[in-house]
């Protein structure tokens, strides 16, 4: 733990990763990528969740509210690996590469 804590400095958080076999390097790509995925997931999930909650509160007795509740209960029971396979099949494979959008959709699960 002592040796690991000694390696934490400003350059570790701001430098790009070093090529394999070279000493040094940082975590800038990982930090920026995590921030992008978090931002995209929030832009997708917060409005849907907020509007779904408002709809269920205002129109709790309709057929559509039953469908929304049933779908959310169903998605709660689905393992994340299954959602990951679905996102891979529907987003990553047609695009031909991994992307922040695919990561954001996967993090919604």
Classify the beta-strand content into a percent band.
under 5%
Q: What is the overall number of helices?
A: 6
Query: What ranges have pLDDT less than 50 throughout 5 or more consecutive residues?
Result: none
Structural class: mainly alpha
- Report the radius of gyration as a whole number of Å: 20 Å
Give the overall average pLDDT. 85
The N- and C-terminal alpha carbons lie at a distance of 34 Å
The strand count comes to 0
Helix-residue proportion: over 70%
Q: Rough shape?
A: elongated
Please summarize the sheet with the most strands: none
Spell the H/E element sequence. HHHHHH
What this model shows, in words?
- With 109 residues, the protein is mainly alpha-helical.
- 72% of the residues lie in helices and 0% in strands.
- The chain has helices at 2-6, 10-14, 28-58, 63-76, 80-95, 100-107.
- Helix 3 (28-58) crosses helix 6 (100-107) and helix 5 (80-95) runs antiparallel to helix 6.
- The longest helix is centred in the middle third of the chain and has 31 residues, at 28-58.
- It is elongated, with a radius of gyration of 20 Å.
- 5% of the residues are buried.
- The model has no long low-confidence stretch (mean pLDDT 85).
